[in-house]
Amino acid sequence: MLYLVTGGAGFIGSHITDRLLADGHSVRILDNFSTGKRENIPDSAAVEVIEGDVGDYDTVCTAMKQVDIVFHEAAIASVPETVGNPLASERVNYRGTVNILEAARQADVKRVMFACSAAVYGDLPELPKREDMHIKPLSPYSVDKLASEHACQMYFLLYGLETVSLRYFNVFGPRQDPSSPYSGVISIFSDQLSHGKQPTIYGDGEQTRDFVYVADVVEANISAAAAPAAAGKAINIATGSKLSINDLLKTICNIKGQPFEPNYKPGRQGDIKHSRADISAAREYLDWQPVVGFEAGLRELFEQS
Ligand SMILES: NC(=O)c1ccc[n+]([C@@H]2O[C@H](COP(=O)([O-])OP(=O)(O)OC[C@H]3O[C@@H](n4cnc5c(N)ncnc54)[C@H](O)[C@@H]3O)[C@@H](O)[C@H]2O)c1
C-alpha cells in the first residue's frame, strides 16, 4: 500500500509516518518544510519526499499518483499566525484540503483522514465537547478547519470519497517544537525547565485542557483508515479527561524532580477557559480509546528528551 502523509515532516505527521513504515508500508510525504524538519523524516528507502505546497493543486496531483490512503496533516497549525494572515490560512488550511480531496477523487484514493481540531468548538462553555453540539469557531484557523471538515463530508456524500475528520484536542509528545510561543504548552514547560528558566503560566493556571499523547493519536488515525463505520464522520480524538495548567506543571515538575515555581502573567486574549472531549464517538466508530494516556505519555516523552 502507498500512503500519502501531508505534513509528514511535522510533529504528528512524522509519527504517523514512523508507524506506517513499521507496518511495512511505503510512504510519500508532501511537505513545504515551513515548520517541519528534515530530521523528523526517517532515512528509509520506503519513504519518498516531495517538497511542495498543498495550496498548489498541480503539486498535490503529482503527490497523489498511485496513492491508496491519505493522512492530511499539513496546515498552518498556529492559531495566532492565521489571525495575522487569514488569506494564507484560507489558502493552506481550507483550499489545501479541497486540493487534497479533489486530487484524491481523481486518483481513486480509498480513504482520506483529515487532521481537524478542537479549536472548531470555540469558547462555548458546555462540556464535554460532543461532535453534534453547537459550535463557534473563533479564528481563521478554526473556520478553515471546520470548512475543510464540511468539504470532507461533502466529498463523501456527493462523490463517495471516503473521508474521516479527526478533531484532535491538545496533542503532546516527542518532536513537538517548543520554539514557537504558541506551541504545545507541555513542550514549552519542558524546554523552560531544561534551560533553568521559570515556567510561565498565563492567567491563574486553573484553565483546563484535554491532553492526548501522540502515539494514541497515531493509533486513532490507523483505526480511522480501516474502520468501515467511520467514513463521512467527524470524531473527537482526546482522552475525555481534563487537567489544569497548574496541575500539568506540578506533574512535570514531579517527574523532572524540580520545584513548582511558575511565573504567572496576565491571561491571553482569546484563551479558552476549559476544554474536554466526549470520546464516545471514537469508541463507537473507530473502536479506539487512548491506551498510553497522560502520565505514561509524559514519562515516555521525558525519557526520550
Ligand atoms: N498539535 C496539536 O495539538 C494539534 C491539535 C489540533 C489539530 N492539529 C492539526 O494536526 C496537524 C499536524 O499538526 P502538528 O502539531 O504536527 O503541526 P506541525 O507544524 O508540526 O506540522 C505541520 C506540517 O505541515 C507542513 N506544512 C505547513 N504548511 C504546508 C503547506 N502549505 N504545504 C505543505 N506542507 C505544509 C509543515 O512544514 C509541517 O511539517 C495540523 O493540521 C494541525 O492543525 C494539531
Care to describe what's here?
The protein is α/β, with parallel strands linked by helices and 305 residues long. It has a domain at 2-172 and 214-239 and 276-291: NAD(P)-binding Rossmann-like Domain (Rossmann fold), CATH 3.40.50. Helix content is 39%, strand content 18%. It contains 10 helices and 13 strands. The chain has helices at 11-22, 57-64, 79-84, 86-106, 140-159, 185-194, 214-226, 245-256, 280-286, 294-304, and strands at 2-6, 26-31, 47-51, 69-72, 111-117, 162-168, 170-172, 200-202, 208-209, 211-213, 233-237, 243-244, 263-265. It has a 7-stranded parallel sheet, sandwiched between helices. It has a two-stranded parallel sheet with strand order 7-10. A two-stranded parallel ribbon has the order 8-13. Strand 5 (111-117), helix 5 and strand 6 form a beta-alpha-beta unit. Helix 1 crosses helix 7 (214-226), helix 6 crosses helix 8 and helix 8 (245-256) packs across helix 10 (294-304). The longest helix has 21 residues, at 86-106. The chain is globular. The mean pLDDT is 95. The chain binds nicotinamide-adenine-dinucleotide (NAD).
